Amino acid sequence: MSCARQVYEFLKASSIAHARWDYEVSMSIIKNRKKLLVLLLLLAPILLVSLLEAAPLLGGKEAYAPAFYSPMIFMVSMAIGLAAGLITGCIGAGGGFIITPALMAAGVKGILAVGTDLFHIFAKAIMGTTVHRKLGNVSLKLAIAFLIGSGAGTFVGGAMNRMLYNIDPLLSDGFISLIYAVLLGFLGFYALFDFLRSRKGPAAASGGAHGSGHSGGPGFAVKLQSVKIPPMIPFDEDFVPGGKRISWVVITTGGVVVGILASIMGVGGGFVTFPMFVYVFGVSSMTTVGTDILQIIFTAGLASVIQYAIYGYVFYSLAMGMLVGSLLGIQIGALTTKVVKGIHIRGFYAVSILAGFINRAATLPRKMVELEWLSIPKSVTSNIEFVGNIIFWIVVAVFGIWLFSKFFANIGALREDSALPEISVKAVG
């Protein structure tokens, strides 16, 4: 199997794992009246300020956009959260990847979008976590080694973003846009090819790759476990006779990678942790789940508060708007999977990821011209960026309208079977 295909399968598994976590914590909040009451109390002052159209709230500097608070930008944040929730709930993957690009497309500076997204993830994790139910499956030594690495990684990634912003805000925006353009472009084009193959039948969709699709795999995990750099960490004693052992250095290095990605992209790190533990380190999924929950809380909290919030790079009102929107979107998206075809959802997954890629890629020419790295007429770069924005918002709007139309057209059937389903991965699995 090609290396590119392995990377795609790894990223796909990452996207699915993050969506499952998002679904679980969202349902934990929705089904708990006390948590909903806390959320309402947190929202009350923001909504009051919106109605009064007051000026700046927490988290806004003159150098940033938006440099002011308004009801409109709060509504936009709810719409972004709603769209991400619909994608997560319906598709079972991908929603977390569009939040930072969507905030940037709405006019929020890259560093503020990253910090706000991280804070939104941290707030959701704190409110909705069910970690107390799963701590029995956590290897404490694995968790400590990984969290040491991810903590160090958040300092590296956060310092990098802040350094680039201090040099030139355009450089910071361009760097974040480039990272997302590469990631979303790679993931989106592969997803599109998979969708086109799937229309030809199951055999074509598999591409002959079943059983070896994930990056790394058992063989790679065995090689990593054979690295004998002390101290060695025992794990999975309850699942494998005698358990397994892996070096602290390997686990900590993986944590550093996750921490850097989390603090640069604003995704909390959870989208990488699960497949890294299972397919690269060879840890059982049962042990991985609890560790992943701990990691998201720790990494997102450390990155959002220590690396962004204390420097003023978190727009708290936008974070709360995204949280409310995503809770609603996940419910509707998950319910609607009962009445839509998996092949249609699979197509929308590819298209939504590619729309994010186009949006971020379209901003790069203007950034490079303003940084004096390219010489292109300003009108050309502005038009390219405008088209990229239009394509992105049209795709998001069409997906949302299509999903809501399916939801309301079948609301009677859905009401009869009101139990929320487990999040569907049929679209991308």
Folded structure, characterized:
The protein has helices at residues 3-30, 33-52, 71-91, 99-105, 110-128, 131-134, 140-167, 169-198, 202-206, 217-225, 248-265, 270-281, 285-308, 316-336, 342-370, 378-409, 411-416; strands spanning 232-235, 244-247. It is mainly alpha-helical. The relative contact order is 0.19. A two-stranded antiparallel ribbon has the order 1-2. The chain contains 17 helices and two strands. It has one domain.
Give the N-to-C terminal Cα separation. Answer: 18 Å
Instruction: Give the overall form.
Output: globular
* Helix fraction bin: over 70%
Sheet/helix structural class: mainly alpha
Computed over alpha carbons, the radius of gyration is: 21 Å
Could you tell me the mean pLDDT? 81
In DSSP terms (H or I, runs of 4 or more residues), the helix count works out at 17
Largest sheet: 2 strands, antiparallel
Q: Could you give the count of β-strands?
A: 2
User: What series of H and E elements makes up the topology?
Assistant: HHHHHHHHHHEEHHHHHHH
How many domains comprise the coordinates? Answer: 1
Order of adjacent strands in the largest pleated sheet: 1-2
Q: Which residue ranges are poorly predicted, with pLDDT under 50 across at least 5 consecutive positions?
A: 53-67, 203-216
Percent in strands:
under 5%
Provide keyphrases for this structure.
429 residues, 2% strand
